[in-house]
Design goal:
single chain, 16 helices, mainly alpha, about 425 residues
């Protein structure tokens, strides 16, 4: 019996290592093999096409294991072992996990995914050329309602990209799970573009400044580092760690907004999408009055539905609303760790602990509201949120810095305005004044 179990264990280990090989055995990622690292996107987008067609539920369920297996195999087969590229490897891992979560959602959406206002999906055997039964005016109206990409690309390919790339579900049936922040940009196209360009410039400079300062800190390298300087007295030590932690949080906050704004420009300018399809990616940090406000309104909601798919819906099925909160934050912690494991970093339980602490704080807020009938708010709510995000959050930032994230490249040095122009100017000015 023991021999049989040993055989099963040995075979399972071989199968596991076929999909997730040891880091030393992975191939170096190069330009020539980069297409292989993202090969899993082909079955993924085919699955995205199927979710927009009637009668494809069984096909999507059967395709799910292939998408998951290919996402793991393609992602873990390759590595970029230069520590300075850890940011990009981290994001490559997050992309794979996002695809897995979307594939799970596609597989279990029995009726497919509908846009708001749609009554039913198209049949899989009906293409653009099959719309000849429409009158000329009906066909013209349909084309005028679609952007340039929809007019150029085949309908099947456009539908696959549209369903596969959407994250928050703006304009889709699953978008009801993600509340949208109040609109802060004008609805008129030119004004929207101007405001978006301003946001891009502002966020680019903020990221550049924080990144430059962070990499100037003693001991912060792409191989490791810390936000706690133990040679300082306690007050100064935690003042420095708090400043670094807040700065790193703002860098992520601005970085997500920067990428989103670039995509918004592509959508509105190149694809002629209405600005209404690009609501703000986050709310105002200054409006936070509770921990729930921070995570549900102020912080970006890019992966909210991803976390619901990976843990929130199961948690709600198992333990109700409390289980949904726990499930979402556990999924978030594992999601972030998955990206770092792809980057070759050792798993660190402090990241998961941070997200569990956040879930505990939100559950305490809900318990307080249930007992008192009042929401947490005001000065107490601000301090309460800061205790969890700024205080407890330092264990997460320390975990990332200790594994080299703080010193890894986020902005390539030649593209850094501060390092290329401002710092040399400051150095020249200082030398001139010291003469």
């Amino acid at each position: 019996m023991n021999e049989a179990w040993n055989e099963v264990y040995w075979a399972s280990s071989l199968a596991f290592r076929e999909f997730i090989p040891q880091y030393a055995r992975r191939e170096q990622l190069k330009w020539t093999n980069t297409p292989q690292a993202f090969l899993y996107l082909i079955p993924y987008f085919f699955m995205a096409y199927l979710v927009r067609r009637q009668g494809t539920h069984l096909m999507r369920v059967l395709l799910l294991p292939t998408v998951v297996a290919m996402a793991l195999r393609c992602t873990f087969r390759f590595k970029n072992d230069s520590p300075k590229f850890a940011w990009y490897e981290w994001n490559r891992g997050l992309l794979a996990m996002f695809v897995i979560a979307k594939a799970v959602d596609f597989a279990f959406a029995r009726e497919g995914r509908l846009k708001n206002g749609e009554q039913e999906l198209r049949r899989s055997h009906v293409g653009d050329s099959a719309d000849t039964y429409q009158t000329g005016s009906d066909r013209a109206a349909e084309l005028l309602g679609r952007g340039p990409a929809a007019r150029v690309l085949p309908r099947a390919l456009f539908d696959a990209f549209e369903a596969g790339l959407t994250m928050r579900g703006v304009g889709w049936d699953f978008g009801r799970y993600t509340p949208l922040p109040p609109t802060t940009r004008p609805p008129e196209r030119r004004a929207f573009v101007r405001e978006t360009v301003k946001n891009i410039l502002r966020n680019q400079l903020l990221i550049d400044f924080i990144d430059t300062v962070t990499k100037s800190l003693p001991g912060v390298t792409a191989s490791g580092g810390t936000i706690f300087y133990h040679d300082l007295p306690p007050m100064q030590r935690y003042a420095v760690s708090t400043a670094v932690h807040v700065g790193h949080g703002l860098l992520i906050f601005a970085g997500v907004a920067l990428v989103y704004d670039y995509l918004a420009l592509v959508g509105v300018v190149l694809l002629s999408q209405p600005p209404a399809l690009w609501p703000p990616i986050h709310g105002s940090l200054l409006g936070v009055r509770s921990l729930h406000d921070f995570w549900a309104k102020a912080w970006h909601q890019s992966f909210r539905y991803t976390f619901l798919t990976l843990g929130g819906f199961f948690g709600r099925w198992a333990c109700g609303n409390a289980g949904m909160v726990l499930g979402c934050f556990i999924a978030s912690g594992l999601f972030h760790e998955f990206g770092l494991v792809v980057a070759g970093k050792e798993p660190d339980s402090r990241v998961l602990l941070f997200f569990l602490i956040q879930a505990g704080g939100i559950l305490m807020e809900k318990a307080f509201m249930a007992m008192s009938g009042r929401k947490i708010g005001g000065i107490f709510g601000i301090v309460w949120a800061a205790l969890f995000v700024v205080g407890a959050g330092q264990i997460c930032t320390e975990s990332w810095f200790s594994r080299g994230i703080g010193g890894a490249i986020s902005i390539p040095p030649p593209l850094s305005v501060i390092r290329v122009t401002i710092l040399p100017l400051v150095r020249t000015s200082v030398r001139y004044l010291s003469l």
